[in-house]
Design brief:
This protein is α+β, with helices and mostly antiparallel strands. It folds into three domains: 3-15 and 130-191 and 263-368, D-Amino Acid Oxidase, Chain A, domain 2, CATH 3.30.9; 17-82 and 194-262 and 371-422, FAD/NAD(P)-binding domain, CATH 3.50.50.60; 433-465. The chain has 14 helices and 19 strands. The protein has helices at 3-6, 45-57, 90-97, 102-122, 141-156, 166-172, 194-207, 256-261, 277-283, 335-348, 393-407, 419-422, 433-450, 457-465, and strands at 34-41, 63-66, 82-83, 134-138, 161-164, 180-184, 190-191, 212-214, 219-225, 229-234, 237-246, 262-272, 293-295, 301-305, 311-315, 320-321, 357-368, 374-378, 383-387. The strands form three sheets. Strands 4, 5, 6, 12, 13, 14, 15, 16 and 17 form a nine-stranded mixed sheet that branches. Strands 1, 2, 8, 9, 10, 11, 18 and 19 form an eight-stranded mixed sheet that branches.
């Protein structure tokens, strides 16, 4: 048996954040009809932050939140826990799509991050936050050159960035594949335990703020009742409300505009067993620095240390879109994807050849054609949504939740007048064009990575249409 396959043989098929000894007891499902002012559908980051912010703005608002499985089960409990202040999927994408609002979006992102962390402190939520900044590593001379140009631009703009040449970056994290690195150490970007964040928010909402949360409650459909109310039909009851926020992200929505706005892209991760001090010494990681890392390519890997010194490793070429918006649970257990990730892990860190993997899992990223959140509103302001964070939702989902509740009338601000909110996102093409387009684009991105980042004709064509992956 090959080394990378052997290292995976005992790995549990579940997120490293979902071990049974840390999972909270589930809350009871809906069993009777309910009435409330605000119904929130979805127990991930967006739904939980929406309930929190609605309560902060209107303490007496009566809120019901329903979740089909359990709080933190979807993308919010299956990501890598990288916390970033960006609201529009990196500075590059922001300047490309919203050039007139780039500065404002940066300010709002910083404000959002500050309020995010203040909430954790105020309610004593231990999400295992670490301020690590963001570190990009170049894997070839051409990428190193492009990354250095990015560094020079950031330095000229006054950003707090550090450059590492080949020798210096390997002193930070030792891999023979690293040619250079750039550390963005300013601000409050870092890493968290995403599931503990969800569960911490859940406990505060239920035990301190009086929000009624029903887990194990499936929404069958939502519809307007007259001109002032909404009705949500669930498997075991009906919820009557004044307003509804749909926070279901990539999961199939009953609203056509949401379904056409995002596609579900599967991402996969693996996690090692806790590394010993001796193993950490081999890669010079975890003692003097605890960088959160990503390689500087289109099909990038993202990898970090957990509180107990495991390495989580995800992304790269293991990302998949399945025909016709496949979201079935069967896609979570993907042996070939996990083996690919393990092989790539050992290619980057061959000195960790004795490391075993304890966890392997999949999760869905809701991807929009503009590579950042897509808000919307319907039924005369009675139903709203924020979806499509495209892999950058750990921090941005709090801002998406803010937009959602403001669209529903909870202390709306001038943010709602920004193009970021008002500009419509291009819908995805119907099948089979969608599947062919995603597959062809993925192959083009991989080819560009192998060619020093040079974008071929297809990617240049997408750039011209405003559909190119520019981050």
């Amino acid at each position: 048996m090959e080394k990378h396959v052997e290292a995976l043989k005992d790995a549990a098929v579940r997120p490293v954040w979902h071990d049974p000894d840390v999972m909270p007891e589930p809350l009871a499902p809906l069993t009777t009809d309910e009435t409330c002012e605000l119904l929130i559908v979805g127990g991930g980051f967006t739904g939980l932050w929406a309930a929190m912010q609605a309560k902060e703005r209107k303490p007496d608002v009566d809120i019901v939140l329903i979740e089909q499985t359990f709080i933190g089960d979807g993308a919010s409990g299956r990501n890598g826990g990288f916390l970033s202040s960006t609201l529009a999927h990196t500075e590059t994408n922001t300047e490309h799509r919203f050039p007139d609002e780039a500065e404002r979006l940066e300010e709002l992102g910083i404000q959002n991050m500050r309020e995010f962390l203040e909430t954790l402190e105020r309610y004593n939520i231990d999400a295992r936050y670490e301020k690590t900044g963001e570190m990009y590593v170049a894997l070839d001379p051409e990428s190193a050159e492009r990354l250095h140009a990015k560094y020079q631009e950031a330095k000229a703009a006054g950003d707090d960035v550090v450059w590492f040449d080949k020798d210096a970056v390997r002193e930070q994290v030792n891999s023979e594949t690293f040619f250079a690195g750039m550390w963005e150490r300013g601000g409050q970007d870092g890493v968290i335990d995403p599931a503990r964040l969800c569960w911490g928010l859940r406990d505060v909402l239920v035990n301190q703020l009086g929000v009624r949360i029903f887990e194990g409650t499936k929404l069958l459909g939502v519809e307007p009742v007259g001109k002032e109310a909404m009705r949500a039909n669930c498997e075991n009851g009906v919820i009557h409300s004044d307003k509804v926020l749909l926070a279901t992200n990539a999961y199939t929505s009953t609203i056509g505009r949401i379904r056409r706005s995002v596609i579900p892209v599967w991402d996969y991760q693996i996690a090692t067993e806790p590394l010993t001090d001796e193993q950490l010494d081999r890669i010079s990681w975890g003692k003097t620095s605890r960088h959160a890392l990503a390689d500087y390519v289109n099909m990038f890997h993202y990898f970090r240390l957990t509180r107990d010194n495991r390495i989580t490793w995800g992304g790269g070429g293991a990302v998949r879109y399945y025909f016709n918006n496949g979201i079935d649970d069967k896609f979570m257990d993907a042996t070939a994807r996990f083996e690919q990730l393990a092989l790539e892990f050992f290619e980057m860190f061959p000195q960790l050849d004795d490391v075993k993997f304890s966890h392997q899992w999949g999760g869905i990223i809701a991807t929009s054609t503009r590579f950042c959140m897509v808000p919307g509103v319907a039924y005369d302001g009675r139903l709203a949504w924020s979806v499509g964070y495209t892999g950058h939702g750990v921090g941005a989902s709090r801002f998406g939740a803010r937009i959602g509740i403001e669209l529903l009338g909870y202390e709306p601000s001038d943010v709602l007048k920004m193009q970021f909110v008002t500009r419509k996102s291009l819908p995805w093409a119907p099948e089979p064009l969608r599947w062919f387009g995603v597959k062809f684009t993925q192959k083009a991105l991989i080819k560009a990575d192998k060619n020093g980042g040079k974008r071929g004709l297809w990617l240049k064509f997408l750039d011209m249409l405003g559909l190119g992956f520019t981050c």
